[in-house]
Each structure stands twice: as C-alpha cells, then as structure tokens.
Design a protein that fits this description.
2 domains, 298 residues, mainly alpha, disordered C terminus, 13 helices, 47% helix
C-alpha cells in the first residue's frame, strides 16, 4: 500500500485537535505528573507512572492513585527525607501484577537511596541515558538506563538475584524488546509540547524511540505503516523514522492522540461498524471496507 502522507497528516491533525484537551489526560498515566509543578516531582512521578504503566487504565490508576496520595504534595521531598524510614512509609504498599509487595518495597528503597543522594539537582536521570561524550545513542541509551537501575537494585538486594517482578519493572538491558515504558518516559521528559514536560534538554525529540504500546502496534498495522506482527527495539526507531517524514522535528507528536483511538474509541484493529464509522482515521484505515457510506449519527 502506498501511503498518502498528505492525507495521513491531515487526519492525524484532526485527531490531535479532537484530543488536545485536558479532560482526556485522565485516560493516561500522564495525569499523575501533571498534578505537580516542581521538575523534581514531575520527573520522579513520571518515572514511577511509566514503570507501572502496564495493564488496563483502571488497574494502573487503582495502584498509582493511593501511592501518590501517600507521597503527599511533594513526592521528591517525601522520598528524599524518608531515609531509613522507608519501611514505615511503604508498609502499606501493595503488589501490582508481576511485582510482589516485597518487590515494590525493594524498588522504593532503591529510589529513596538514589533520591537522597541527588542533592536537589534537576534533572535527576537524563545523564543515565547518555554515553561518556554526553550523547544519546540509538543502540545503547535505553540499555544504559536499565543497567543503571539493575546495578542500584542489586545494591539493595545484596547477594540475592533480581526477582522476575523487579526485572520486569525496569526491563532487561540485554533483551531486544521495544522498551515501550522507558520510551514513554523519554517522550514525557524530552518533548516540550502538550502534553509533555520538556525537562530533558540534551536529548532531542527527533532522537527518541516511538513508544510501541499495544494500541500503537495495532494502529501502525491497520494504517499500513508496517506489516510486522512482533516488534523489537530497532522497530521503535524505525517507526520514529516514519513519522520524521511528517514531523521532522517532533516525530512523537501524534503518539498521545493515536493511543486515544485504542483507549477511548476502543479500536480492535478489525472492522466494527459502530466504532469505525465515527473514527477520524477511517479514510486511511485498511480494515474499513471501501465504498461503504457512513451512517449519519444522531
């Protein structure tokens, strides 16, 4: 299929205009860091939100909302001052899917130690993505960040190996997965436009990988952007390169808006009359039969 870039661009812009509204942030984990003003709070809350952003929206919010209530008006300050009292602070902390209660306690113990050593410097973790020359490298930057966390978690655990839950939380640095949750974290930290924060300055929006969550994976297939059924880390950059043709300076611009098609509009990547007829992308979608006149709504 030959993609009509002009038509695709116009449909993506229409989708952006529809969902560029604060009311839709509640359907995304970015709603949690949006509650804070201090860059240190935003960065800490963003990392926690992204790492636990797997599962359905209800489950994610059900775990994160009481957690951030516990952390109070300044999560960074709460964690920085917790010190050896982290166990008291997180004794009510629950498990979440693959993470046991103990996994989460070990993660937050590690986070407390890292933050207590930060000396109030923002950003906290941008340098952990960069090479020795201070550059972001496609082949190694996300792995650098994962290796940093593997080392810090291992310090917490001592001689005990990382559990499956902790390894899943940060992802394995040695795997070739798309690393979608870390890619999402980078989008929030690097992009300066709505709905993101632009806290990281050394990494540019046209460098970072596209967050290939389940909704994006389905959409890029039915829009004819890729025919792949499974995705590797290199594919996250290939999809970013595709959107560079549309937005050379900001290829991840449409990520938030595209995911609303799956989360809010309940796109199943197969033709469903009630869903597809109302979709802004129906004219360019491969699963919508051609020649069918849409019914008028109302």
């Amino acid at each position: 299929m030959q993609i009509d870039f002009e038509l695709l661009h116009s449909k993506l812009e229409a989708l952006k205009n529809k969902y560029q509204n604060l009311t839709y942030l509640e359907t995304d984990p970015i709603c949690f860091p949006k509650q804070y003003k201090d860059p240190l709070d935003i960065e800490v809350v963003s990392l926690i939100s992204c790492l636990f952003a797997y599962g359905n929206v209800k489950s994610i919010q059900g775990f994160l909302r009481p957690l951030f209530t516990l952390l109070g008006p300044s999560p960074f300050q709460t964690l920085q001052e917790a010190g050896s009292n982290y166990q008291t602070l997180f004794q009510k902390l629950q498990g979440y899917r693959f993470q046991t209660k103990k996994d989460n306690q070990n993660f937050f113990q590690t986070l407390v130690r890292i933050i207590s050593e930060s000396k109030n410097k923002s950003p906290l973790w941008e340098s952990k993505f960069l090479d020795q020359a201070g550059k972001f490298q496609e082949e190694s930057s996300l792995q650098n960040f994962q290796r940093f966390w593997e080392k810090e978690l291992q310090t917490t655990l001592g001689k005990k190996p990382l559990t499956y839950g902790l390894q899943f939380l940060i992802g394995k640095s040695t795997t070739n997965s798309p690393k979608k949750r870390l890619s999402l974290f980078l989008r929030w930290m690097v992009r300066t436009s709505y709905p993101d924060f632009g806290i990281y300055q050394k990494i540019k929006p046209n460098q970072i990988p596209f967050p290939l969550d389940v909704h994006i994976q389905k959409l890029i297939q039915i829009l004819g952007i890729t025919s792949r059924k499974s995705f590797r880390s290199s594919d996250a950059y290939l999809i970013k390169d595709f959107f560079l043709k549309i937005k050379p300076d900001d290829p991840l611009l449409y990520d938030f808006y595209l995911t609303r098609v799956g989360i809010i509009e309940k796109c199943k990547a197969s033709y469903q009359e009630g869903v597809c007829e109302k979709c802004y992308l129906k004219e360019i979608c491969l699963v919508v039969p051609r020649g069918i006149e849409p019914r008028l709504q109302g």
